[in-house]
Amino acid sequence: MTTKIAKVIAREYCLAKPFTFVERTRAIESIPDLQLLLKPVVAGICGSEMLYFKGQKELEKLAKRLPMCLLHEGVAEVVKAGAGTTLLPRTRVVVNPLVPCGKCFACMSLQENLCYEAKYMAATMDGLARTYFLYPESRVIPIPGGIELEVAALSEPISVALNCVEASGIKEGEKVAVIGDGTIGFLVASVVSSVARIPPEDLFFIGVVDGKLAISRDFATILNSYKEKQKLEQLFGKIDVVFEAAGGGAHKNTVSQSISLLRPGGRCILLGISSGEVPVAITNIVNKGLMIKGITRSKMEHYVKVLNLLRNNEFFKLKVKRAISDKIFVIKSAKDLQDAFRYADTEVGEAHLKPGRVLVKFP
Hints:
Elements: E1 2-17, E2 20-32, E3 35-44, H1 47-53, H2 59-65, E4 68-69, E5 73-81, E6 92-95, E7 98-99, H3 105-109, E8 119-120, E9 133-136, E10 140-142, H4 149-152, H5 155-168, E11 176-179, H6 183-194, E12 203-207, H7 210-214, E13 221-224, H8 229-234, E14 239-244, H9 251-261, E15 262-270, H10 282-288, E16 291-294, H11 300-312, H12 314-322, E17 324-330, H13 334-344, E18 357-361
Parallel strand pairs: 11-12, 11-14, 12-13, 14-15, 15-16, 17-18
Antiparallel strand pairs: 1-2, 1-4, 3-5, 3-9, 3-18, 5-6, 6-10, 7-8
């Protein structure tokens, strides 16, 4: 069943081909039961979406999925509600970009974030790069008072960081390393510090850009793997848990670094995403008895925990604010979004040497 509404024209900023966004319009004249009409407010540009923008995804995925609206991290506002919903208009919500099928083996026996048939924003369905869209109320979470919208917009990557830290089983007294000085690496290090309570002398934040590493200096031991190779090698075989959060072209080095850093019986949590194959020394994994675990996405419960953490832990919220770029784009056209993506490219864009997730706002 649906509820008829006065026609709303949504402007959608779609990636038509690598490096090119175009605008299309869509008329919305009804709202299905249990769904909401939402207006995006703030969204972040994730590295996984940069792969689409730069044409670095598998060719079959590009051919099948484009044109597509990108952006899966963010905050929206309820405009109208369908029958059976409870949220009121003007409520600001965090959008969980994952809509699980609820029927597959993963959904029934494992975790919703491993769903075989999941719809996921900016991957298998359109993301937040549009002025209005319909979405299930069950996949949004109201934002508590006291949390700035820009901070709430990072709930998705924080929820992934929290999922990773929980899955790692970090224990008191263990030594932890996070490889990758991008936003997700910084957020993982922040969760390790605030939630797992690992002190700075036992938490190593490893990357290649001094400016990005510096924002964690007060709660982690920072290490530039290009400039301080000897210090890095001194940690080989001494780390209990490594989070690999670099991905991309760096994967060829960072996965090997992770294996070298781990002591016998250590655990490696892989978050980074890259295309193609990565060479791995299997003998080192076997001989050291390592556990390697991949983590993808998160569950709804992680979003709830993240919002509670942001509301109740001021120091953690202050850390998250450091993960926001000082450059924010207002999106009024497809070209505006194109400019934002070019800036946010951490390999060749201006954001390469600057810390923080690049955010976009929709007026």
